[in-house]
Amino acid sequence: MAEATLFDEETGGAPSTPARRPRRAKPAGAAEDGCAPGENRRAGRTAEEMASRQREISVAEFFTKNRHLLGFDSPLKALLTAVKEAVDNSLDACEEAAILPEILVELSPVAENRFRMLVEDNGPGIVPEQIGKVFGKLLYGSKFHKLSQTRGQQGIGISAAGMYGQLTTGKPVRVVSRAGKRAKAYEYVLTLDTARNKEEIHSKSEIEWHRPHGTRVEIELEARYQKGLRSVDMYLKQTAIANPHLTLTYVDPGGEKVVYARSTNELPAETVEIKPHPHGVELGRLIAMLKETPSRSLGGFLQEEFVRVGAKVAKDICARAKLSEKAYPTRIAREEAAALHTAIQETKISAPPTTCISPIGEALVLAGLKKEIEADFYCASTRPPAVYRGNPFQVEVGIAYGKPGGVGLELTEEGRIQKRKAAQVTEELVGNADEPIRVLRFANRVPLLHQQAACAITKAVIQTNWKSYGLTQPRGALPIGPCAVLVHIASVWVPFTSESKEAIAGYEEILRELRLGLQECGRKLGTYIRKGKRLQSEYTKRSYIEKYIPHIGLALQEILDLTDQERDATVSTLDDVLQKSRKF
Ligand SMILES: Nc1ncnc2c1ncn2[C@@H]1O[C@H](COP(=O)(O)OP(=O)(O)O)[C@@H](O)[C@H]1O
Ligand SMILES: [Mg+2]
Question: In this structure, what are the phi and psi dihedrals at residue 483, rounded to the nearest 5 degrees?
Fold first, then answer.
């Protein structure tokens, strides 16, 4: 396709240099930049000329040139982003329709650097009239305008993945969807018209499909597949940890199949959608809301458009802003809106309700970690909900510590200390004892694999004093140890640092909650590590004594002239004394 050449493949998405204008002949004595001294290259360009070049930029064109903003900056990352967008949508749709999700992800190599991604779910499906827009139009979705905890929010996920596929391979997106038992299944083949940000439907046909409801999307895209910490495999494994209600089948490009079976039949608690909290609204947004509202009075506007504003609070705000409660909202002028905004910030308003967020919960964080990560010790903490800029959020932390097979001691059921049996370790989620700990970051149950350093979660982990919990920690860095720390932020609006949703912005309220959650969980880890250290030192002392008891027996036999039987009896008494003195 012609558009494919828009990109400089080497730089992975940076727009290619525009064709240079032919150079003018360099006049004698010209300066190095090719202009005669005093000559201005820009002279003579009129406003009219410039106006002739000014034109609207479609969102699709913008994101075509800036695909790194959406997470498609390299073929390796493109594969992960595409899978992530499709799986996130499937999970969101299933949860919204109260269906226990069953998802299939299949990656098949088509040619070198080219893959076909197939993601199929048993969700509610999409009605035929919407299929075109959902997959063929950027900034189109059902989640942007509501404040509720979902994985997608901007309406720019799956359509962007399809657009990337189309640009790099020229192939259209194939969608099969069925919106219920009584509905028919349709197959759509479509592309996105980037200049108009509009779908182009190539074909639409009714087909037989084995699923009573659900959606299947297939995208062919230029990509690279690699295993490792930032791979599709790792994303899916971590998705299984944070979504214990999900059954996921994954067929990798080599044809190998992994099934992550669900460990609970309980769907995450249903969340309610909330209206914005007045403390989180920005001035521009407030002005827009005043213009759009159907309310006929300012008092009514405040009560209807915001959460936690009753008659009394509305009256307080208006009085503080020196505005009449009866004022017509659409007539509030710019300065008055500014006064209203200030008054809102100064008025005491109770925190938003937190029924709009659903954490994973301590028990399921533990279950998820135990199911997918082999370790010696697990703990979890869920913090109470908190608020940043009027948006409720909640932080959860889970820790898996100790690599089975690594050096370590354990207590037997009878209370003996013994060296742990070495196990075959293939686990990548708990690193080696001399490596930095692994931080598993999640936002609304979605694993975040890129931009670790820019993320508030990493910052909070670094700011936590892990030395007091028994780990070593170089200054200003992640602690060292065989340990995976899971951190989940659930919120109605996760403040990502960019549209590619890879890192969370460091709002002070969020950093504070993160630190508290990490400390809570860290204390539990500290207790375990200290106990391990005590075990270790007692084990060393005891092994010395055990080693020398037979020699003491021999010495006593010589000094006291004991028979062999008497010597063995003495050795066994000494052994008994040692056993009885155990502290653990
Ligand atoms: N698998 C699916 N099942 C049902 N609805 C879907 C599915 N995928 C996407 N959608 C719908 O399409 C919309 C657009 O998806 P997307 O472009 O990923 O944006 P976002 O997820 O940010 O809203 C979603 O808001 C949702 O309503
Ligand atoms: Mg989405």
Answer: -150, 140
Q: Are strands 247-251 and 102-111 parallel, antiparallel or unpaired?
A: parallel
Count H helices and E strands in the chain, helices first.
14, 16
Q: Which atom of ligand 1 is found nearest the CA of 88? A: 21
Q: Tell me which amino acid residue 218 is.
A: E
Dist CA 286 CA 296 (whole Å): 16
DSSP class of 38 = T
Say how far apart CA 238 and CA 230 lie, in whole Å: 11
DSSP structural state of residue 485:
E
Give the Å distance between the CA of 368 and the centre of ligand 2. Answer: 24
Contacts of 94 (CB under 8 A, 6+ apart): 100, 101, 121, 122, 123, 124
Among the listed residues 256, 4, 237, the one whose alpha carbon sits nearest the alpha carbon of residue 113: 4
Distance 387 CA to ligand 2 centre (A): 24
Helices (H), ranges, 243-309: 283-292, 298-305
Ligand 1: residue whose CA is nearest its atom 12: 134
- Token pair 């869920």 is found at 382
Rounded distance, CA 502 to CA 453, Å?
11
The whole model's pTM is what?
0.78
Nearest CA to ligand 1 atom 1: 90
Buried b (16+ CB within 10 A) or exposed e, 305-324: bbbbbeeebbebbbebbebe
* Angle CA 96–100–101, to nearest 5: 85
Distance 456 CA to ligand 2 centre (A): 22
| Dist CA 105 CA 77 (whole Å) | 17
CA of 89, closest atom in ligand 1: 8
Task: Give the count of alpha carbons within 13 A of 203, CB side only.
Answer: 8
d(CA 37, CA 27): 10
Indicate the DSSP class of residue 329: G
Q: Any idea how long the chain is? A: 584
Torsion sign across C-alpha atoms 315, 320, 326, 330: negative
Structure tokens at 486: 């899971």
pLDDT digits (tens, 9 = 90+) for 278-288: 988 889 889 98
Task: Report the C-alpha gap between 79 and 219 in whole angstroms.
Answer: 10
The two tokens of residue 158 are: 């799956």
Q: Residue 149 Cα, ligand 2 centroid: separation in angstroms?
A: 13
Return d(Cα 62, Cα 40) in angstroms, integer: 31
Which run of H or E residues covers position 188? Answer: strand 185-193
Q: How far apart are CA 397 and CA 247, in angstroms?
A: 23
Sign of dihedral through CA atoms 221, 226, 229, 232?
Answer: positive
Strand, coil or helix: 204: strand
Residue 90, number of CB atoms within 10 A of its CB: 28
Mean pLDDT, the chain cut into blocks of 10 residues (584 residues total): 36 40 45 52 76 78 79 92 96 95 98 96 95 86 76 82 93 96 95 89 95 97 92 94 95 95 91 86 89 93 94 96 94 89 93 87 93 90 89 95 64 63 53 88 95 96 96 95 95 88 93 97 94 79 86 92 92 87 66
Long-range contacts of 465-471 (CB under 8 A, 24+ apart): 466/522, 468/522, 468/526, 469/522, 469/523, 469/525, 469/526, 469/529, 470/525, 470/526, 470/529, 470/530, 470/533, 471/437, 471/525, 471/529
